[in-house]
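[Amino acid chain]
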Amino acid sequence: MFNDKYKFFSYICLDKRKDKTLTYMKRILSIVCIAATAWLLTACGSVIQLPRNGMNGGIKTYTFYNLPETLQDLQSLPEANLKDPYGVAALTIAALCRYETNPDACFEMLNWLKGPDGLSNYEKQFIRERLQGKTYKPRSFFQGATPANSYAPTQPYKLTPVSNPYSFQESGWATIYLRSGGADSERPIKLRQKASTGEWYLNDIQCLSDIRTPANEDPWK
């Protein structure tokens, strides 16, 4: 009788140990799977970031034979229909280039690109601070512009905005990226879509961080 009770108790203990062992093994397997997934995403990051097709990851090139000097010039360009977020990002850079010779004309163009929100005084001051003594920054996004040639683009002027799988993650919003010849990574421009018209407007200029000093201003050259 005693032996039967002892055996029964032993079986229960063994079952509990098996359950604990299985639970522990499942946890280890889960951790290994998570780590492997993270490694794969990191290893494939350069591929995932910039797929070359589709709205959720693409690349487009825009050519300007002349950069706009006035709002009327800007509005006459094909991209001014505002239906293409990549095109609006390109127009933003083209408008920013005007700051070097005529800040007021630059602000007028950006104010139009901002749509219903308009360009605030805070945003104007932000642009002044970012471009003070560094008006070469917008030019650096054009093809051929490098620190070595003091960010003198090849002509006609060409811009290549890109997106990644996260650019259109939130409905009605987009983040488009541009590569500067003086930086190692793409710089973002945030856009917002007007639901009633489908038009895309500039929301936030996030592409004016510092870049490498141009050769003609580098004291070490």
